[in-house]
Each structure stands twice: as structure tokens, then as C-alpha cells.
Fold this protein.
Amino acid sequence: MSTQRTLLKTLAFLLVASLGLALPSRSEAADLKLEAQLIWGTNEGRSPDPKHKAVQAEIARKLKDLPFKWSHYFEVNRQRFTLSPTETKRVQMSDECEITVRQAENAQVELVLIGKGRRVGKVIQRLPRNELLVLGGNAPNFTAWFVVLRQTD
Amino acid sequence: MESQLQLQAYLDGELPEAGRREVEAWLTHDPEARALLAELRQTDAALAGADCDVKLPESREFYWSKIEREIRRREAAARPPEASTVWSWMALWRRWLVPAAALAVLTLAFVLGPVLLSGRPHELEVVLATGNSTTYRDHARGMTLVWFSFPAENRFPEDELDALLFY
């Protein structure tokens, strides 16, 4: 009798363990592939920094459709990264600017903007595929900065 | 004339009781009326044998409705053919094609509206406004914009903020 009980317990344990292994891990199923861009908006046709690139056409079109005065947009930096459900990723966008990104509840993304080591603002927003989350503000000489976050393949 | 008609009605038995008594009282003291009544009786008697009764195969109402239908048929036949075609097409248009056309226009507007409006600046919906930032939503372009309006209730001096997040 005791042998049978032991055998049954062993079988039950193995069954539960196998089910646990069969289920995909939470992190593998919900990792997000993201891309963050730091963009400079200006009315000048050329950027003084030769390292700056032209913004991707799709993003440039969306930014130009905004009711803002800037007619030209330049990409200062672009970073791609993968975000697991449990981690908070710190991404350096420039010497003075970085962002932290983490997955929040209800399929939202939390984006914290940090300048010179100080937190400037926090945004919690849903980020479906093919949508953009854009943070922006004023920059010197009547220009503007933007941080664009989106999902990538 | 009126007295003759009244006597004729009396002779035909078409007067009510009061009217009949009135005529009889009148006849008793008016010899001319009696003479006229006698003449009318003679006329009736002379014509009685000459009339031949015509028996209609249908009732009076049905007979007259047939006449009315025939009149309308001839009037319709006399109308120009182009006018009737035009009127019939217009009636068809009003009944079926106008609602169908309205539905088609609404469908096209729903489908093509976003395409036609894609080139125009989109209206941004303000979804959140705080002390130092305003969140806008552009549903058509799938974009959320958070604009930080420095300096609001911020820790950084204004001259430092402008260069804070750039380079």
C-alpha cells in the first residue's frame, strides 16, 4: 500500500513538472522589441552636426503632420533593444539624455525621461504595433527635441 | 314654373305628406291649378304607352362606374407616351434609387474619408494635461505625443532646461 502511494505521488509530481515545462515561460512570450530615436526638429535645412541623419520617411511624415512649426527633422541617435516583462531597461540617447523603459500593467509601456541625471517626466502608455509614442519639448534656438518609441520586428 | 313642378311631383306621388295636403288645399280654391293638374294627367297618360321600359342588366352604380372607367381609359390613352415613361422613371428613381444612392455615398465617405483626409493636418485630441506636460492623441496616424512645456513646475532653471535634453 505504501509503495502504491509513493508511486502515485511520484507520478503526480512528474505530471505536474512536465506540464510546467511544456508551458512557455512568461518572459519568452512577452518580450518586446523596441526602438528609441532621439530626433531634433528645426526649420534649418541642414544640421550643424554632420553625424545627424535624415529621419526615416515614415516618421518624418508623421512629425510634419503635427501642428508644429518645424519643417525639418534629424535623427540624433537610434537604439534598438529587447525588453522582457520583468526588467527595466536604461537606454542612453545622448551625453545628457537617457530613458528608462519597462513593461507596465495592462499591456502598457512606462517611459521615463532623464536629463543630466534628473528625472524630467514619466509616461505610461499603450504601445501597439505600428504606433508611435513621441515625447517632445523645446530646445535652444527655437528648435525642439523628440524621443520616439515604437515596436519593431 | 315652380307650381307646375310641384303639381307634377304631386301627380307622381313624390311629395311628402305635408306637401301633398298643401297641394290638395291649394287645388280646392284654385281652378287654374286644377286645370293644370288635369292637363298634366293627360300628358302622362299619352306618354305612358309610348315609353318602352329599358331594363339594364346591371345596377345603376355599376353602370355609372363602367362609364367612369371608360372615360379614364380614354384619357390615359390620349396622353403622350414620352410623358408617361418619364413619369414612371421618376417615380422609380424616387422610390428606390435615391435611398440606394444615399447609402452608396455614405459608404464611400466612410471608406474614402480617411484616405482623402490623410494629406491634411490631423486634429490632435488632448487626452491629458498636467502641470508640465500635455498628452495628445492622433487616432488616425496611430501616434501619442507628450509635449513637455518647460518650465512649468520643474526643478530646473529656465536657461538650463533648453539645453537639458539635447546632446
Helices of chain B lie at 2-12, 17-29, 31-48, 60-78, 81-116, 158-161.
